[in-house]
Amino acid sequence: MRPDVMRSDWILAGFQLLIRAGPTALQVASLQRCVAACDKDFRYYFNDLRGLLDAMLESYEALASRPFATAEALGSGGPIARLMRLCDLVSPPLEDGASAPAVEAAMRSWAQVDPAAQAVMRRVDARRLAQLSALFSAAGLQPAQAADGALRFYAAVIGSEAMQLSCQIEMRRPLRRVAEGILADAGICLGREAPVDGAAPSASSRVG
């Protein structure tokens, strides 16, 4: 007989426990208490704890691998406008409870002690950096500059998420300053878009 507690309930409980108490708290008994279910209910969906952990990682990677720095995800407008829009999208309002930053921080903590979680985070980070690099390249940065800018911006996102969780700061404005600084360092004049995605800006759109 199918238990009342669904497979997704176990996965959600796993993330809630991970955020609240860290990766060492991910134990079957603890999860059973979270969802008020018994071992038989757990075994209906998962052979063992590793089965649930793998399901959590699969769920996270599927969600985290969605395009987030592409024209499809950011809508119309030039690459610089899309970059500024990205700063807004990755900066959830403080009243939202910082759910996304909390998950990201918990996943990075988990990756430090679990090789499978580490492998997932490496793949997710690589995909995100590739998308960011493409966005900076579309804004007019040369390939090496775009790769460096992607890393700088992504590191700022991760750091800002941690600061939001610990200090309740607003992320949007600091991230915009980081993005503007990356463009300025490459000689891209703010307020002027590259003529087409992927094309170098004209001389009039560069500083100096």
Compile the SSE list and pairings.
Elements: H1 7-21, H2 28-35, H3 39-45, H4 49-64, H5 71-74, H6 79-89, H7 99-111, H8 115-138, H9 143-167, H10 172-185
Q: Keywords, please?
A:
single chain; 208 residues; mainly alpha; Arc Repressor Mutant, subunit A; Tetracycline Repressor, domain 2; 2 domains; 0% strand; elongated; disordered C terminus
Report on the architecture of this protein.
The protein is mostly helical. It folds into 2 domains: 7-60, Arc Repressor Mutant, subunit A; 65-205, Tetracycline Repressor, domain 2, CATH 1.10.357. Helices cover 66% and strands 0% of the residues. The chain contains 10 helices and no strands. The chain has helices at residues 7-21, 28-35, 39-45, 49-64, 71-74, 79-89, 99-111, 115-138, 143-167, 172-185. Helix 4 runs parallel beside helix 8 (115-138) and helix 9 (143-167) runs antiparallel to helix 10 (172-185). It is elongated and about 60 Å long. The termini are far apart.
Task: Sum this structure up briefly.
The chain is built from 10 helices and no strands.
